[in-house]
Amino acid sequence: MTDTIEIKLGIAPIAWTNDDLPELGKENTFEQCISEMALSGFTGTEIGNKYPKDPIVLKSYLQPRKLEVASAWFSAYLTTEPYEDTQAAFIEHRDFLHAMGAGVIVVSEQGHSIQGQAVDLFTEKPIFTENEWASLTTGLEKLGHLAAEKNMKIVYHHHMGTGVQTTAEIDRLMTETDPELVSLLFDTGHLVFSGEDPIEIYKQYHDRIHHIHFKDIRQEVLSDVLASKDSFLTGVKKGVFTVPGDGLIDFKPIVEIITSHHYKGWVVVEAEQDPSRANPFEYALKARHYIKNIWGI
Ligand SMILES: O=C1C[C@@H](O)[C@H](O)[C@@H](O)C1=O
Ligand SMILES: [Co+2]
Fold it and tell me: Pathway of this protein (predicted)?
């Protein structure tokens, strides 16, 4: 298949050790994680809490394994804290990612987020007020300027249990921010979990999507999570997420639309589940084979 050579495939450490739920995978070491990523055929990683914080030290582990840093998550609190607090933390994060050679910074607004709380994921999610939307959009544009100082972009992560989860919320964020300053991250798992149509989102925002997370959803676990009114993390522990090819999402039309729009950048497999039930190395291999089969890359 042509047009795919500028796509790079990475995998996130969250399947080995989960920063949202540190008890998941606490026994897995950093070196096991990055060695298994490389062995399963990925060339990029995001960052987990067991990774060395010093760029020189981190490079000394990643380079022998031919792994690059694709990006790393940043929690913004633009709706609940003074902008300056988010900015200070963002600059530190940006400079670390820049030193690691990454081009994009994953940003997610965590003001009022319930993704870490033991409450019903669908009924308790935040709905931003008009003032909060204004703080979010103006704050993100300022972060976008700061990213541009280093020739980087911010890619906004829509996410379950946050104020930017649904299609309507993504639409509002995209409409009210400057495309030059705020790009979008496309996460298949979060869109399908929320009941959105990933193909429609990709079609609408292909020119703003500069980072991709591939995760799949187990239908039977999703039905259980919805019926039980579970929280996000209970859903994760039950196994709602899995790797592409192991769940309900048909990735063939998704890779077709990504290819047809000449996407350039990282596609990162990100499938948090309980590593004691889903061996991360086996699932990384499964994901890599599936992508090769359906996409040829
Ligand atoms: O990109 C992500 C980072 C995680 O911390 C998050 O909770 C996960 O679901 C995700 O999509
Ligand atoms: Co994600």
Answer: Polyol metabolism; myo-inositol degradation into acetyl-CoA; acetyl-CoA from myo-inositol: step 2/7
- Distance (Å) from CA 213 to ligand 1 centroid: 9
Evaluate whether residue 85 is within a structural domain.
yes
Q: Do 233 and 177 contact (CB within 8 A), yes or no?
A: no
- Which atom of ligand 1 has the smallest separation from the CA of 160? 9
The pLDDT of residue 2 is 43
Predicted confidence (pLDDT) per residue in 258-275, tens digit? 999 999 999 999 999 999
Distance (angstroms) between ligand 2 centre and the Cα of 270 equals 6
Pocket test for ligand 1, best of 17, 19, 20 (most atoms within 8 A of CB): 20
In a domain, 1, yes or no: no
Q: How much distance in Å is there from the Cα of 18 to the middle of ligand 1?
A: 9
Question: Which ligand neighbours the alpha carbon of 162 most closely?
Answer: 1
Q: Ligand 1: which residues within 6 Å by Cβ?
A: 14, 19-20, 73, 115, 157, 187, 190, 213, 270, 272
* pLDDT averaged per 10 residues, the chain (length 297): 72 98 97 98 98 98 98 98 98 98 98 98 98 99 99 98 98 99 99 98 98 98 98 98 98 98 98 98 98 98
Tokens representing residue 43 in the block: 């060339």
pTM of the model as a whole: 0.98
Query: What CATH number is attached to the domain comprising 61?
Result: 3.20.20.150
**Number of domain units in the chain:** 1
Measure the CA–CA gap between 37 and 53, rounded to whole angstroms. 19
Within a domain: 2 = no
Q: Is residue 92 part of a domain?
A: yes
* 3-state SS, residue 75: strand
The parent domain of residue 26 ranges over: 7-295
Give the SS3 label for residue 148.
helix
Q: Quick one: which atom of ligand 1 is closest to the CA of 115?
A: 7
CA distance 78 to 162: 13
- Per-residue pLDDT of 246-259, as tens digits, reads 999 999 999 999 99
Helices (H) and strands (E) counted in the chain, each on its own, are: 11, 11
Ligand 2 geometric centre to CA of 60 (Å): 26
